[in-house]
């Protein structure tokens, strides 16, 4: 029986040659360039910025957008890229997700031609970095309650407020910021160096340590009207961006789950307990089988959602189901692998504890597990249960 432990049902068997090449190229980059230093970078809380331009050269940034220097790849290729990046570390995938599916997508979908031509080609090359400012200190799961406000002043806008837990913020050259206005929530481009704008780093994280996270502060920031995303008309536009990134997470976390299962298989075959391999015990085989089964189901779910997205028929509740389900799968796989490895599982010499810590954040960000379940519940019943 010729099956892959991490794709037991062959969900990816029928990807085409170009998709296979993309997957192999990203896997080689992650294995040869990124992984050798990830333990040290995680321990130091360091994001390796030196790989940003290389990711741009490989066409990984904004890869499923068309025009403006973007690769214009299909949704499966995008998903496979996210999967391979997160196999390396959730922080690496988070950088690419924010750059591509939040910042670049917002400009691509809602920006003017001038904005697209000015920012997207350089962002695709990794020459400039973007971030996405939606979450506020008091408004996470309820972004509609945001207090950040932009007031019209002649031909300019004056922006006041704050955002927090913003990936890429301290290194971003441009921030996509969502703010209340007298005519509803709109999106704005805030460039680094704007007077009254600061983006300090958040320290002492115990998760996503190889990712850079910060806050955004706006103190009477004067923004020219040309920096407003002219096609934004409400919070739904920000949520459209989030759904792009959540789709990438659905694939991405499977890379972390796959890495954990591979580590568990390798460890249990080599580890001798009571004069025989740990893998020979029934309890261990049960845990391995459950992990493989859940990953196989997650793979099928991801590929079906990619099909729906390609057909432009995907619904937000379907993305919520996929994000909630696959993050839970990945987190359970990381926890199970840590359990199987025993005391060794907490060592940085192994990968499962790092994945586990990272996935605790992925479980919460871009919609918490509970919120996504309630989105599915609302779709099923027609009754919102958020309040």
UniProtKB/TrEMBL annotation:
- MF annotations from Gene Ontology: fatty-acyl-CoA binding; flavin adenine dinucleotide binding; glutaryl-CoA dehydrogenase activity
What superkingdom heads the lineage? Bacteria
For this UniProt record, the keywords arranged alphabetically read as follows:
FAD, Flavoprotein, Oxidoreductase, Transit peptide
Q: Where is the Acyl-CoA dehydrogenase/oxidase C-terminal domain?
A: 234-380
Give GO BP annotations, semicolon-separated.
Answer: fatty acid beta-oxidation using acyl-CoA dehydrogenase; fatty-acyl-CoA biosynthetic process
Positions of the Acyl-CoA dehydrogenase/oxidase N-terminal domain? 17-127
User: Where does the Acyl-CoA oxidase/dehydrogenase middle domain start and stop, copy by copy?
Assistant: 131-221
Look up the record and name the cofactor or cofactors this protein needs: FAD
Any Pfam family hit: Acyl-CoA_dh_1
Record's family?
Belongs to the acyl-CoA dehydrogenase family.
Question: Can you say what this protein is called?
Answer: Acyl-CoA dehydrogenase
Question: What lineage is on file?
Answer: Bacteria, Pseudomonadati, Bdellovibrionota, Oligoflexia, Silvanigrellales
